[in-house]
């Protein structure tokens, strides 16, 4: 069974078991096809290529990089890719016949907020070609040491890979700096539904798409028309209002029934567990094994869904959380290699937090630049930054970074709101008698009482401390 779908802002990498309708569309570019196991997600490690917790052997793989034949060296951590191939019975190793990468958006940064980015800034937003983009200090990868979260600036010409959430914000998993932006010269790329009221004037995301006889529309077999999903390559004028189109590629795709199908993304359009979307694909998770068990599915959860495509719907057999709102910055102890756990003690006088790792956990040593690490690379006394989610009293890590020792941080849902000079999060009870309080926009909240009232409707908070004695410096709503 093949079902045609129209997708808005759906990258080729997210398209998974999709075949492009056009001859050179990004869904099956450069002659690279694939069958069998299909997986789409962010690259979390190398050696081979790690995607969605699976290590894919790539010795005989073909690589397509934005429509051009490439090599594994063209890939990088944080890129969203599609892997065609097979998976071994162990479920954690496989062989890739092809790996395809296509960026989601390329163009100049505008409206960077906050400006300037401070050492205490954890996330920032900006727009590129009318699309809101969010970057995160701990989870967004950048393409170099001089271009990073702290140095990104307005008018930087960037290429973005990532996923859209339920509100249409592009959450960047990787950002690459391109050549300096020059109006009417630098190439930009945008995806979306082509809109027109008269079949003469077209727009995407409110930007005017200027079309001439020199515009290549060979990949659109039925020509230009209202509502078709496309990718446009062209140049942007100085006012950032008009894209002069050089080339159109079709983003209208056909969804094939598949036996093994896996993708990462954010839940959107949630109705119930039988009806929601990930990356524009309808998912039925009514029979899925949830990990961690008992999680409540909802919009904006970052998940990995695995199953098969039946009549255009992903019938998920497994669904597990990715990303996560929990963050812990603290020192490693009690490493258990066999159990794949370790402990951290944000407050030495209180019970430690157990951290669990899995094949999908991304690990990196920021001090050496080494990636694709595992628990054997940890040492007691390492200072780490952990991102993940609560799981039956412990924390499952989606990301672990070894960094220089710094301030203690614990982020999670507040578990007590008594006006007693203390605050508890992830089981850690901090003394906040001398702490400052801030809302999610970094505005000051004058008292603990008012903070607790605000936390009643926004329970995700973070606590920062200078040391592990349990005295908080700052408490923030996230």
Keywords for this entry:
disordered N terminus, single chain, 13-stranded mixed sheet, mainly beta, 478 residues, OB fold (Dihydrolipoamide Acetyltransferase, E2P), 7-stranded mixed sheet, globular
Would you kindly provide a written description of the structure presented here, covering whatever features stand out?
The chain has 478 residues and is mainly beta. The protein has 5 domains: 2-101, no CATH class; 105-177, OB fold (Dihydrolipoamide Acetyltransferase, E2P); 262-321; 326-406, Copper binding periplasmic protein CusF (OB fold (Dihydrolipoamide Acetyltransferase, E2P), Beta Barrel), CATH 2.40.50; 412-477, no CATH class. The protein has 2 helices and 43 strands. The two termini are 45 Å apart. 42% of the residues are buried.
Helix- and strand-based class? Answer: mainly beta
Q: Approximately how much beta-strand content do the residues carry?
A: over 45%
Mean residue pLDDT: 87
* Major sheet description: 13 strands, mixed
């Amino acid at each position: 069974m093949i079902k045609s779908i129209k997708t808005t802002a759906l990258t080729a990498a997210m398209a998974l078991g999709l075949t492009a309708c056009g001859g050179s569309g990004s869904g099956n570019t450069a002659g690279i096809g694939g069958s069998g196991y299909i997986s789409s997600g962010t690259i979390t490690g190398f050696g081979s290529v790690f995607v969605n917790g699976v290590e894919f052997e790539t010795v005989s793989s073909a690589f397509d990089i934005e429509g051009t034949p490439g090599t594994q060296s063209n890939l990088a951590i944080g890129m969203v890719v599609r892997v065609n191939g097979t998976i071994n019975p162990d479920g954690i190793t496989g062989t890739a016949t092809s790996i395809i990468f296509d960026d989601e958006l390329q163009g100049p940064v505008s409206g960077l907020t906050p400006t300037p980015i401070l050492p205490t800034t954890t996330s920032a937003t900006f727009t590129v070609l009318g699309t809101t983009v969010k970057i995160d200090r701990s989870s967004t990868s950048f393409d170099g040491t001089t271009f990073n979260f702290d140095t990104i600036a307005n008018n930087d010409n960037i290429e973005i890979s990532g996923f859209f959430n339920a509100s249409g914000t592009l959450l960047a998993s990787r950002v690459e700096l391109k050549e300096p932006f020059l109006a009417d010269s630098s190439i930009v790329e945008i995806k979306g539904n082509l809109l027109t009221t008269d079949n003469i004037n077209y727009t995407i995301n409110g930007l005017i798409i200027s079309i001439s006889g020199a515009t290549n529309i060979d990949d659109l077999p039925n020509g230009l028309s209202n509502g078709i999903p496309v990718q446009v390559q062209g140049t942007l004028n100085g006012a950032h209002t008009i894209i002069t189109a050089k080339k159109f590629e079709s983003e209208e795709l056909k969804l094939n029934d598949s036996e093994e199908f896996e993708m990462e993304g954010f839940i959107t359009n949630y109705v119930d567990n039988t009806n929601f979307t990930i990356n524009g694909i309808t998912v039925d998770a009514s029979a899925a094994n949830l990990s961690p068990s008992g999680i409540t599915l909802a919009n904006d959860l970052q998940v990995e869904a695995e199953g098969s495509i039946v009549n255009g719907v992903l019938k998920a057999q497994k669904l597990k959380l990715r990303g996560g709102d929990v963050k812990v910055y603290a020192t490693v102890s009690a490493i258990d290699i066999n159990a794949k756990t370790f402990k951290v003690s944000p407050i030495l006088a209180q019970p430690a937090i157990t951290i669990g790792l899995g094949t999908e956990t991304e690990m990196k040593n920021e001090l050496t630049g080494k990636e694709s690490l595992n628990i054997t690379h940890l040492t007691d006394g390492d200072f780490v930054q952990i991102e993940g989610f609560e799981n039956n009293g412990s924390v499952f890590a989606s990301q672990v970074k070894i960094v220089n020792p710094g301030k203690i941080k614990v982020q999670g849902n507040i578990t007590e709101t008594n006006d007693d000079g203390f605050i508890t999060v992830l089981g850690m009870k901090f003394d906040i008698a001398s702490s400052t309080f801030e809302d999610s926009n970094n505005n000051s909240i004058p008292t603990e009482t008012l903070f607790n009232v605000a936390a009643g409707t926004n329970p995700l908070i973070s606590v920062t401390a200078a040391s592990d004695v349990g005295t908080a410096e700052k408490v923030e709503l996230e």
